[in-house]
Design goal:
The complex is a heterodimer of chains A (119) and B (278). Chain A has 119 residues and is an all-alpha fold. Chain A contains 5 helices and no strands. Among the domains of chain B are: 38 residues; 104 residues, Cytochrome C3 (Alpha-Beta Complex). Helix content of chain B is 29%, strand content 6%. Classes of the chains: A mainly alpha (119), B mainly alpha (278).
């Protein structure tokens, strides 16, 4: 009888401990980082499209230094990103499609300029 | 016979006079048209220059927003807002709304109540918790005293040019340090390779050439704000843009005449040209 009581108490203590740990964990997460705006939340590194977007569009400042092959590859990567961005919610889609258009446009512009130079 | 000759002479004069009047008329109209096309209208007062009224939902909401470019360009580059945040360069093309602001886009990209600027949190745009006074800070059209900053006081310490603040001097002297990166939105980039400046020869001998500085422009705009949408690719010498295009808001006129120094400031581009066109 005594053993059963002890077991029941132990189980209750474990459950309570687990509940407290979970609650404390949740509060800790909230305390460590303030909730971010959906736009910022939408940008964690785990989003593969965003990683690719950042990588492709971070090179615009150096566009003039790339070869025609490199520029063609960057344009291809921009085109591959487009369908992924089109799947996003309306606000993000609008912002990032605009940015992608500008980024791709610049690479195409430089590629065109390089081709014209050769003529 | 002499009478006949005189009559012929009179007839010639009768025919010639209207032609002369017509020619003069064409010349005068041509000159007026030239002046109207090639010389822009005088810009408004510097405090009003670059003012944008956003009235997408003015009738239903808290009133139209008044956006002053002079306030924001003292803190941020053109590129960070028009490329990274996605503000279009044309009216009503951005699709801005209270909900996009709350979601952290458009104004809400910075105005989220959490981001710090110069050590202070930037107030949240379109927050549910905002009171009327806070809403009026942006939704200020026709509301006297609603704005926090006034042009005269705000720009008092900034260098001035022939027309309002000389932003180029303000930036190059370090009086202002426009931010070009918004955490969570901007992409980290390498420093731009220095682009070569170039000279644009005018088609008319009486027009002074332009010394175009890529460096000065790219500090504010990066590359993709101008290319290819404002200045598309074309083989050298095939595009002839003129003041007519600029006054119409194309090419240089996409910014100059709206936000960047006005087109009336001839010497701003045409070195050695007149200081100011009336």
């Amino acid at each position: 009888m005594f053993k059963v009581k002890v077991r029941t108490k132990l189980k209750a203590s474990i459950v309570a401990l687990l509940l407290w740990t979970g609650l404390a964990g949740l509060c800790g997460v909230r305390a460590l980082g303030e909730p971010q705006s959906p736009a910022a939340q939408a940008d964690p590194a785990r989003e593969s499209w965003r990683k690719e977007f950042d990588d492709v569009c971070s090179k615009t400042q150096d566009a003039m230094t790339f070869s025609q092959e490199e520029l063609t590859d960057l344009i291809r990567r921009c085109d591959a990103l487009r369908p992924q961005i089109e799947k996003l919610d309306e606000s993000r889609k609008k912002v990032y499609l605009g940015r992608l258009r500008m980024c791709r446009g610049l690479y195409a512009y430089v590629l065109d300029a390089k081709r014209n130079e050769k003529k | 016979m002499p009478t006949y000759s005189m009559r012929r002479g009179t007839r010639r004069n009768e025919r010639g006079f209207p032609l002369l009047v017509l020619a003069c008329g064409i010349l005068i109209l041509g000159k007026i048209a030239f002046a109207q096309i090639y010389l822009p209208n005088a810009p408004p007062e510097p405090a009003e220059y670059g003012k944008v009224i956003l009235d997408n939902h003015a009738t239903a909401g808290p009133g139209a927003v008044v956006f002053d470019h002079w306030l924001h360009r003292s803190k941020f580059t053109c590129r960070v807002c028009h490329v990274d945040i996605g503000f279009a360069m044309e009216a009503k093309a951005t699709g801005i709304s209270a909900s996009t602001n709350r979601e952290g886009f458009h104004c809400g990209a910075c105005h989220d109540g959490k981001r710090l600027f110069e050590g202070k949190p930037i107030f949240a745009a379109c927050s549910d918790a905002a009171n009327d006074k806070q809403c009026d800070r942006c939704h200020s059209l026709g509301k006297k005293g609603a704005r926090k900053y006034e042009y005269k006081e705000f720009t008092a310490k900034l260098p001035k040019g022939i027309y309002g603040v000389n932003w180029e001097a303000a930036e190059s002297s370090g009086v202002i340090k426009p931010v070009d990166f918004v955490e969570g939105l901007s992409v980290k980039m390498a420093k731009m390779q220095n682009r070569k400046d170039f000279s644009v020869e005018a088609r008319y001998s009486w027009v002074h050439p332009i010394n175009f500085s890529h460096e000065k422009h790219s500090i504010w705009n990066g590359c993709e704000l101008c290319h290819p949408e404002i200045f598309p690719s074309a083989p050298k010498g095939t595009v002839h843009f003129s003041m007519f295009h600029n006054v119409e808001g194309q090419y240089c006129g996409a910014c100059h005449g709206k936000v960047a120094f006005p087109l009336n400031n001839c010497r701003g581009c045409h070195q050695g040209g007149p200081l100011w066109a009336p």
